[in-house]
Amino acid sequence: MTEERPSNFLEEIIEEDLSNNRNDGRVLTRFPPEPNGYLHIGHAKSICLNFGIAQKYNGKTNLRFDDTNPTTEETEYVNSIRADIHWLGFEWDKELYSSDYFDTLYGLAVALIKKGLAYVDDSSAEEIALAKGTPTEPGTPTPFRARSIEDNLLLFENMKAGKYPDGAKVLRAKIDLESPNMHLRDPLMYRIKHAHHHRTGDKWCIYPMYDFAHGQSDSIENITHSICTLEFVPHRPLYEWFIEKLDIFPSRQYEFARLNMNFTVMSKRKLLQLVNEKYVTGWDDPRMPTISGLRRRGYTPASIRNFCERIGVAKRENLIDLSLLEFCIREDLNKTALRRMAVMNPVKLVITNYPEGKAEIMQGENNPEAEDGGGSRDIPFGPELWIEREDFMEEAPKKFFRLGPGLMVRLKNAYIVKCDDFMKDDNGRITEIRCSYIPESKSGSDTSGIHVKGTIHWVSARHAKTAEIRLYDRLFRVENPSSEEGDFKEYINPDSLTVIKNAFIEPDLGNAQPGLGYQFIRKGYFSVDNDSTPEALVFNRTVTLKDAWAKEVKKS
Asked: What CA–CA distance (Å, rounded) separates 299 from 296?
């Protein structure tokens, strides 16, 4: 029985609201992605938080696409976001779009103009920025701030009618040019963009800014708890100002620390650069921190949900160690992944005293950690095997419990063998290891009385299948590439992908299923890649296993 964790600060807020019957005891959250890229692990935290909180308090969550910028949005991104949320195990109540509210938002903007709280400004972006002042100096009004309500209504209507080119005019809220909060210094509400929208087509040529569309969309939907990341703290007074002046449903905004993780980048703009400039194969490249990339790499929904639960909900920014995410997937796959054998850097092992022409079927556990025992599978065995080249050393040190001249080792699920001889080519490379086996040492019925410290994996040469194996590592070689000098792409890890074209795998892996995890014994956790076919199998390494021998090497 697991110990129940204490409530986080957002849950405490909701519990207080429920005890005071605020919002009639309702909990309605929303997840508001902008469809301008694929979701990443940071969005997964927000998804788990918004949907998880609603589930905990018998509430609901809307999926609302913030599609207010037609030049960056694509239907492909909408579809990928839907797929990611479903894959993580969540269901939304309503699927909505900011564009659903374009008519309503336009009407709300007109209402603010009529109250003398919004005006059309002809200034350029540079002039507006200059007139806003600095954090230590107040802003100054542009010549257009004093326009009459009648003029502003006509000009805004003409903006909507498409009478002006992009950038000619904007609609601004009239708040306080001397406010210490720069977001209250007459922020932009609408800009002109003659661009085709993926849902509304060419109906609109003016589009609301995020700060105006977001809070009003929350209010239209009667969202009770609008959960944002910390960068929106200074935006909250503006969020509340719009709601107050428009006298609409008072949705409330709360902020939590976004997920920052080392050895990667979390900016969609930077991720898009990696895709467009071909540093990766696409948004779902298994080195990417995108949900689709993690899925393709072999991460499970449970591991990501567990990761988001473990890092918790905080009010202070911090950098999460990627190794925690790797721990979560190891923990999950250890209980579910099927154990199989694969040899990636093969050398031939010949059992010289094994009867010629004989073949046996050995039994191997599917997963000793599985609750139901995991069952077993058949593994063909014969006199010629492939083993890992690293499992043989011509001059083996004291703590090397594998194969070397005169050394004995157990072949996993099979026999104990002793190295009698080996062969090299003209370059000194080992080409063949010759061993004798102990017939009485068969796994499960060993009567030999011989005890060996090492066990190695193998694949029968006659029965082996081949596969391409892609070994993925961290995409960046520095902990925080965004904070380094120069272009962040200069810090890409050149060894983030190693491809093994012809690894030998046990024949059962020929039936490997996409979406299932496999532990290649002693090598790591792997999954079938999207590129895989029955004729050309491809596996991705999800995460490595810890290697005791590697620790010994490190010590020395």
From this structure: 7
Mean pLDDT, residues 471-490 taken together: 92
What gap in Å lies between CA 97 and CA 356, rounded to an integer?
A: 70
Q: If you average pLDDT over every residue of the chain, what do you get?
A: 94
**Are the CB atoms for 105 and 212 separated by under 8 Å?**
yes
CA distances (Å), 465 to each of 40, 350, 383, 505, 538, in order?
A: 35, 18, 17, 5, 12
Please state, in angstroms and rounded to a whole number, the distance separating the CA atoms of residues 170 and 132.
15
Question: Phi, psi (5° rounding) for residue 222?
Answer: 60, 40
DSSP run (H or E) holding 554: helix 548-555
| Three-state SS letters, 51-77 | HHHHHHCCCEEEEEECCCCCCCCCHHH
Q: 213: exposed, middle or buried (C-beta count within 10 Å: 0-12, 13-18, 19+)?
A: buried
CB within 8 A of 129, min separation 6: which ones?
A: none
Residue range 493-516: average pLDDT? 94
Distance CA 266, CA 33 (A): 14
- Which amino acid belongs to residue 412? K
Neighbours of 248 (CB within 10 A): 17
Angstrom distance (rounded) from CA 247 to CA 237: 15
Per-residue confidence band for 3, with pLDDT thresholds at 50, 70 and 90? low
| Two tokens, residue 424 | 């090299």
Nearest by Cα to 221 from 240, 260, 194, 248: 248
The amino acid occupying position 178 is E
Q: Is the dihedral angle over the CA atoms 224, 228, 230, 236 positive or is it negative?
A: negative
Contact at 8 Å (CB) between 389 and 345? yes
C-alpha 148/C-alpha 230 separation (Å) is 37
User: What gap in Å lies between CA 411 and CA 408, rounded to an integer?
Assistant: 10
Of residues 344, 333, 410, the one with CA closest to residue 367: 333
**Element of type H or E holding 346:** strand 346-351
What pTM was computed for the model? 0.91
Angle at 33 between CA 12 and CA 289, to 5 degrees: 90
Which residue carries 């104990």 as its tokens?
416
So which residues are the catalytic ones?
Answer: 34, 258, 268
pLDDT band at 4 (very low <50, low <70, confident <90, very high): low
Q: What's the one-letter identity of residue 269?
A: R
Q: What are 249-302's pLDDT values in tens digits?
A: 999 999 999 999 999 999 999 999 999 999 999 999 999 999 999 999 999 999
The H or E element spanning position 260 is: strand 260-261
Phi-psi category of residue 338: left, alpha or beta, with phi > 0 → left and psi -120 to 50 → alpha = beta
Alpha carbon 14 to its chain's center = 28
**Digit-coded pLDDT (tens) for 271-283:** 999 999 999 999 9
> What does each C-alpha distance from 23 to 10, 17, 250, 252, 324 come to in angstroms?
16, 8, 10, 11, 38
